[in-house]
């Protein structure tokens, strides 16, 4: 079968589309014939050797897929060949087939677009966990979302509104701000005067929750616009800089800085993870959440797509379609 292969850590252009052996369903696993593979920011870091996890080489990147069950391994119950499923693993998604733990897979609701299913796994899964478990976002609170036109940002905007928050979306261009507005943001702003704009929109109080996927200067602004008892969520560093926190601000302003590592959460709290996915799929079925799918591309274009994602040029969700 065909798959994208990273032979050694390095530039994205070194990725190759190659023939590899078909995966077999091991104990507790299912093999999925892939209809869509989600492209995520960490995939690009992984290929370059810049992610927390450094797999043995060669490997195939890709952590989320949707498609049809092609084989069922020993000990697996609840899945049959022909079921349409979405799943999350560590590697292997940029391919025609992948073996994944059945415990990390979920049946798709009837009629679900496989690209939407991919978006619900990592992008919506991350935002949901961040706002529900890590921030304990409450109705009536003000939520500021950085990167509000990206896949996780749009998810955070939509989920924040479902949870009853007033949402301020932050994006770098007017076009991106309008995407955040269309996703449900109450107000949209840019990064240039971030601290002052958030303070003005909140009557001087500041943000109860800030969803930060950017880091860098945006984080520095957030550390100064948080409200008392606020929660500053550290999701990632798409801006390229891992910022340093002036901890005196957390003392004086009495807010919390909260790390969000969705992958760890899914492994350490599988029952809560399953409940979250049930809720997300339910929201999708009822029309409360709707991913923005920017585009669908063949496997051969994986490197170019990853460049755009890492360069913060993507809006919404991008998938590869074997």
From TrEMBL:
Record-linked SMART domains: PKS_ER
Pfam families the record matches: ADH_N, ADH_zinc_N
Listed Gene3D superfamilies: Medium-chain alcohol dehydrogenases, catalytic domain (3.90.180.10), NAD(P)-binding Rossmann-like Domain (3.40.50.720)
Single GO MF descriptor: oxidoreductase activity
Domain Enoyl reductase (ER): 10-320
Source domain of life: Bacteria
Alphabetized PANTHER family for the sequence: QUINONE OXIDOREDUCTASE-LIKE PROTEIN 2 (PTHR43677:SF4), SHORT-CHAIN DEHYDROGENASE/REDUCTASE (PTHR43677)
Protein name: NADPH:quinone oxidoreductase family protein
């Amino acid at each position: 079968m065909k798959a994208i292969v990273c032979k050694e850590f390095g530039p994205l252009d070194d990725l190759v589309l190659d023939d590899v052996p078909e995966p077999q369903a091991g104990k507790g696993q299912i093999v999925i014939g892939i209809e869509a593979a989600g492209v995520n920011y960490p995939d690009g870091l992984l290929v370059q050797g810049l992610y927390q996890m450094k797999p043995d080489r060669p490997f195939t990147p890709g952590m989320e897929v949707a498609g049809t069950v092609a084989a069922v391994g020993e000990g697996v119950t609840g899945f049959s060949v022909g079921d349409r499923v979405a799943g999350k693993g560590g590697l292997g998604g940029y391919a025609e087939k992948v073996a994944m733990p059945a415990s990390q897979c979920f049946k798709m609701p009837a009629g679900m677009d496989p690209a939407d299913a991919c978006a619900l796994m990592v992008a919506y899964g991350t935002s949901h966990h961040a706002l529900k478990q890590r921030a304990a976002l409450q109705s009536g609170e003000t939520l500021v979302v950085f990167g509000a036109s990206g896949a996780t940002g749009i998810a955070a905007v939509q989920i924040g509104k479902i949870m009853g928050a007033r949402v301020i979306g932050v994006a770098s261009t007017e076009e991106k701000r309008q995407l955040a507005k269309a996703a449900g943001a109450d107000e949209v702003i840019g990064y240039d005067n971030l601290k002052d704009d958030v303070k003005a929109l909140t009557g001087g109080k500041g943000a109860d929750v800030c969803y930060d996927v950017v880091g860098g200067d945006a984080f520095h602004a957030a550390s100064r616009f948080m409200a008392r008892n606020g929660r500053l969520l550290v999701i990632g560093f798409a801006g390229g800089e891992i910022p340093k926190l002036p901890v005196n601000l957390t003392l004086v302003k009495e807010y919390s800085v909260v790390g969000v590592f969705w992958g760890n959460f899914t492994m350490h709290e599988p029952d809560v993870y399953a409940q979250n996915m049930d809720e997300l799929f339910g929201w999708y079925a009822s029309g409360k959440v709707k991913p923005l799918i920017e585009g669908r591309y063949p496997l051969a274009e994986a490197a170019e797509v990853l460049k755009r994602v890492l360069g913060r040029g993507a809006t919404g969700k991008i998938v590869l379609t074997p």
